[in-house]
Amino acid sequence: MPSIFDKPYEPKEHEENIYRIWEESGFFNPDKLPPPTARQAGNREKTFTIIMPPPNANGHLHAGHTLFITLEDIMTRFERMRGKKTLWIPGADHAGFETQIVYERELEKQGRSRFGMDPQKLYEEILTFTLENKKYMEADVRAMGASCDWSREKFTLDPEIIRETQRTFKQMFDDGLVYRGNRIINWCQKHQTSLSDVETEFREQNDPFYYIKYGPFTIATSRPETKFGDKYVVMHPKDERYKEYKDGQRLEVEWINGKITATVIKDEAIDMAFGTGVMTITPWHDAVDFEIAERHGLEKEQIIDWRGKLLPVAGEFAGMKIKEARSKIVEKLKEKGLLIKIDENYQHNVKVCYKCENLIEPQIKEQWFVKMKPLAKLAIDAVNDGKIKFIPENYKKIFLYWMENTIDWNISRQIVWGIPIPAKLCEKCGVGFPDLENKINKCPKCGGEAVADTDTFDTWFSSGQWPYLVLGYPDNKDFKTFYPTDIMETGHDLIFRWVPRMVIFGLYRAKIIPFHTVYLHGLVNDAKGKKMSKSKGNVINPLELSKKYGTDALRIGLIVGNTPGTDLALSEDRIRGYKNFANKIWNATRFVLMNSSDIDRSKKPEITVEDQKLLDELKMISEDVTTDMENFRFYLAAEKLYHYFWHAFADKIIEASKEKIKNEDKSIILSAKWTIFEILSISLKLLHPFMPFITEKIWQEMGNKKLLMVESWPATADKQK
RNA sequence: GCGCCCUUAGCUCAGUGGUAGAGCGUUCCAUUCACAUUGGAAAGGUCGGAGGUUCGAUACCUCCAGGGCGCACCA
After folding, report:
1. What Å value separates CA A121 and C1' B74?
2. What is the pLDDT of residues A626-665, one digit of tens each?
3. What pLDDT, on the 0 to 100 scale, is given for residue A4?
4. Long-range contacts made by residues A35-40, C-beta under 8 angstroms, separation at least 24?
5. Which of A149, A271, A399, A645 suits A300 as a labelling partner, its CA being 20 to 30 A distant?
6. Alpha helices, DSSP H, located in A38-154
7. DSSP class of residue A652?
């Protein structure tokens, strides 16, 4: 059995064992916490709850996960030591779209493809794959020292989660908040699914910009291949240049494949200053055009199919891929004398899939949508009323801006890996309606045959409900005890994807905010501050750092100086420095134990004035650190403790004690020994949330019967003392 | 285009209305001492630029420059 007298400190010899002791103690479970100490009295009635953002079950943790686990564990251990009834619930995310993509790559390696596979078989394969990988993720969470309650762990595809998610859909449909609409959506041709707006990104790109003759007008476009069906020409109603053309006026124009009849439309969406101030519209493949068409009741026609090939409307170009068709169409326009000029350096933003970075093709598709305006109102009010706080505060503004400008949310996905949308669609009249029990076969409207919707929910539709679902809403007593939760700690990149959905669903379904505080951490980048990515080859594996330098060193290295919301540059040197700190704690302890084994710790001796000053000083630091922790300034608390332990306790106090214990006056010796032992004990408690393994290990070596993780926090918090 | 954030020591970053700190790195010295995963010391910054508020600004305000991030109207 490794002990304190081995040197130096070797984290990997202790960590696994310590975690096992914690887990077997049952204290991760708030129902099994020991009775409160005198200092903790009164606090055990208060709960402290964090729902862990469930890591993807499809593989190992990455650096971002280790940061959030550390932060949440710090909060949890701190509040547990303060005596609160502390619950931190772990979870595992099926991560719909993301996992399906990961599995598609697996299939590709095997020379297979999901297209053409039986959906049920594909689902089962992905499920097997995910459950297999879930173990690795969980082992990693344990390796990080997470003091979460595994007995309450939930998977996002657990039957009760699916059931309640589907019930929410039904309830929203009944309340008129979910509707089936034929609207423009983001279509990823590679993944063959629609995506919500937060699942797309903009990419800046240079493309040729074509100026084309359209009857008496000149229009400009970067996408001539979509223009076949353009029979509406739009201009601003106040544009003097075109005042001779009246709204609704018809014109005969020569177009790509011959003569067509064009209709003039006046709409204020047109920017008079851009290009020629005139454009033709393609409502099926452009969001702005779609809106214009909706406003004026115009016809819409699909030009490009779901695989990115031109449809018969393109005449001789039908069946061609976009890229091939574009140059040929331009060639033909030139021959016909319709091409006026080409601007070769046109810079614009294009929408791409956030996963594969392929171009998004806007398409009109019949999908389920959530009506956001009334729901967003609930969230806006809750935040404006101060019911939900943001750390750092400026995210409140960002959150509100997004909520105030939100648009209806497409929740249908054409992928199998997810929660099925419990709905039926009429094959005859096209109407869609929920059917939770899967019992309805006839359309209630026209009597036509109703078939099951094969789509699944957007992952965020279910993960947005996670806080109350994981607590067993509506019937479980955990929901009544622990909801609303205290903190939602997550990455600032999820400020739109996840946080607003949780607030909305919480307020809508559970009728209460899901959490009081949103703490947003920054992203973990490489040592130079560059985003980690496999293609750049700069990915740092946190678990390797943990093995090499110890989890405690990794944890405190991630925390010191890392202010909320700010991205972190993670370098190996940084972590190595904190391994030295762990060793410092180890050696200081050895000195203290070697020099205090002969004192009776149960009897406080006379303390000299000088030693009392040291204890008072530590008391002040404890209070200061506690205030920092209460205000989420972990980066400061950690740094202060580091500094105190090393440069005050080890460098000064211990050094001075060496003289004192050589004194002839026995009472001075006794006071000195008692004091350094006391300072060590208090320091270990203060350091425990940050560096749980080594502090717990030492605590046990010091002969304490109780686990440090449930000891009392040594400062003010309880002012009754 | 709009919004948010950042600019402080070689690097990564804290911080405060009274002319600056940490970690890592660098240089010099020490070493049978709990610890060489160490101790002691040192070098190193006109706190992005300009203006304003103030007795006083790195900190508060305005503008400018550079960098990062986010965003559903430029065909």
Report:
1. 46
2. 999 999 999 999 999 999 999 999 999 999 999 999 888 9
3. 62
4. A36/A83, A37/A83, A37/A711, A37/A712, A39/A83, A39/A712, A39/A713, A39/A718, A39/A721, A40/A81, A40/A82, A40/A83, A40/A712, A40/A713, A40/A718
5. A271
6. 63-81, 96-109, 119-143
7. I
What is the SS3 assignment for A647? helix
Element (H, E) at A485: strand A485-491
A558 — phi, psi (to 5°)?
A: -80, -20
Query: In this predicted model, what pLDDT tens digit does every residue of A162-171 receive, in sequence order?
Result: 999 999 999 9
| Stronger pLDDT, A719 or A113, i.e. the higher one | A113
Which position has the token pair 């300034």?
A633
Mean pLDDT of all residues in chain A? 91
Residue A276: which nucleotide is closest by CA–C1'? B75
Per DSSP, the three-state class of A407 is coil
Which token pair is A328? Answer: 């040929």
Q: Which amino acid is at A541?
A: N
> What pLDDT score was predicted for residue A358?
87
Dihedral pair phi/psi, residue A594, rounded to 5° = -65, -25
Mean pLDDT of A171-193: 93
Strands A278-280 vs A232-235: parallel, antiparallel or unpaired: antiparallel
Protein-contacted positions of strand B (CB under 7 Å): 3-5, 11-15, 21-25, 34-35, 37-40, 68-75
* Environment class of A7 (CB within 10 Å of its CB; exposed 0-12, middle 13-18, buried 19+): exposed
Reported as half-sphere exposure (CB side, CA atoms, 13 A), residue A157 has a value of 23
Distance A569 CA to B52 C1' (A): 36
Residue type, A670: L
